[in-house]
Design a protein that fits this description.
Blueprint lengths: L3 H19 L3 H16 L3 E7 L4 E9 L5 E8 L8 H10 L3 E3 L22 E8 L4 E7 L9 H55 L1 E7 L4 E4 L1 H7 L7 E2 L1 H4 L4 H16 L4 E9 L3 E14 L3 E10 L1 H56 L5 H29 L7 E3 L1 H18 L2 E6 L6 E3 L1 H19 L7 E10 L3 E8 L27 H11 L4 E6 L2 E9 L13
Parallel strand pairs: 14-16
Antiparallel strand pairs: 1-2, 1-6, 2-3, 4-5, 5-6, 7-8, 7-12, 8-9, 10-11, 11-12, 13-15, 16-17, 17-19, 18-19
Helix pairs in contact: 1-2, 1-4, 2-4, 8-9, 8-10, 10-11, 11-12
The structure holds adenosine-5'-diphosphate.
Length: 564
Amino acid sequence: MIADGHRARLLAMVRASQQLSRNSDEKEVIATFVRCALSIAAAHCVRLVSTDGECFLVECEARWSPDDEIVVSHRRPLAESEDSFKTILQTVSLTDMPVLLGTPFIDQTEVQASPRAYVPERPLLCVPLFDDGRRREILFLEGNRHTPQFDTSLIACLQIISAQTIMKLENLRFRTRDAVESSMIEEVKFAMRAHEKELAHTQRMSQTGSWRWYAGADTVEASPEFFRIYEIPSEQRVPSKKFIDLTHPDDSAPVRVALHKAIAAHRVFKLEFRITVGFGEIKYVQIEGHPQVDDIEGAQYVGVVVDVTERRNAESALQAARAELARAHRLSTMGEMAASIVHEIYQPLTGIITNAETCLRWLSKSPAEIGRASDSARRVARDARRAAEVFRGLRAVASNSGIVKVPVDLDDAIREVAFLLQGELDRANIRLRLQPDAPRPVLGDRTQIQQVLENLIRNSMDALQPVVGTQRFLTVSSASYDDAFAVVTVQDNGCGFGEHSPEELFEALFTTKPNGMGMGLKVCRSIVEAHGGVLQANRNDDDTVFQFTLPFIDSTSGADGIRS
Ligand code: ADP
């Protein structure tokens, strides 16, 4: 059988737990706890006091009002009238043992009584509750004459509800912390998404992708713009081979060598090269990489890739326009030259015709007028000499006598012409192979040497135009010949010159092109000869080969032919 008082306490405890489970706010939970303690103990007043060891603060207080209602108040310092309680509170705080005063105690081992022989007017019970290391909380109950005796079973009940209260508070705090953390995580995620979006937008506008290469795994982690430039589907990490393999075949070897060298020396690298993407579209990219070391992932490179195709195309268009202008200039010069030839030659030729006809007329007379016929024949000879002199003068102009020769880095001149024509070669789908290997500078006029090179390359481009179904190749190389000369070779796998002999090609006005002038090779040969070299054409298997020599800067001998 359970005694009535005990049953009432149990019921009060059950109600207390039900109420606590319904509370959703820390303040409410504490108020419920203090109110329940008041009911269970049938006390006059209950205070939940917290202390840091020195100061005491009434966190919550419940007491009966004159109208027999429970009034709850929160957070106030200990009042002066409550000073007498301080000793009891300090004793509990220090000993961690309940104190029971003003009532005969039941079990001496569980409580202490009358600290410092203080005799209160009413029964008092002071129970230590919890201690988080910094603050300790104590439940202080004050009875009155109607209050049943405070006993140790009451202490146990209060400690049980207190434990439940603590759990509830912890639970609420955890939930609040969790909610705060979740909202912080959401905020950070949102900010990161916004940042990523902005970065992607900036990268798209500047056509700049970012990347990170992990040396150990040989994989690349890159931004969406990087994948867009390379036109491959975006992935978390991709084997670097996937990108490297898209390097244009002509740039592949130099790019690999440059990358290996930079990585081996742990150096920054900056490269510009072509890539072939999609259905064979060629793009120009600039890549810059900086070495980095990470404790977890090991050696890495981070960098950017910039799509510079538009810029390069604009440059090529500019070069094409310049080349067109130069060609127009050449044509107009040729036109002027042709007009001056006509003008200079016309007079002596008309003189020759008139005098020859006159001569014939004197000879046809009977008897023939030999003296007059001889005069006419002399005038024919005079006019013919004049015509020959005009031709000699023109030849001197064409052979560029009067050029200023200086040391010329032939390989550099070759590379410059190749660079200028690269755009046109790309558009014509011609693969240019450069093999410059001249050991020393030559003596000559850089502009004129480049004019010869450009002419020969353009002729090869024209000859490659009809080639379909096989790769169009054009090779420009330089080498040393007999130690005194540099020999430059321009070779193509174009249509060739058919039944025409190589020497025919160099004849003035010889052309097989609908809009050709037939003067290019003639002018080239005269330039090369004016430099002390020779220019020849040949067929080599299926290739057309043009070769010319130029004397090295310290050469004294002459070249009279090129061995094939
Ligand atoms: P044009 O280019 O105005 O015809 P050129 O003197 O430069 O004048 O060339 C003369 C001719 O030589 C060309 O019309 C062409 O028939 C031939 N020729 C020149 N280069 C080549 C080449 N690489 N392959 C085949 N034929 C060529």
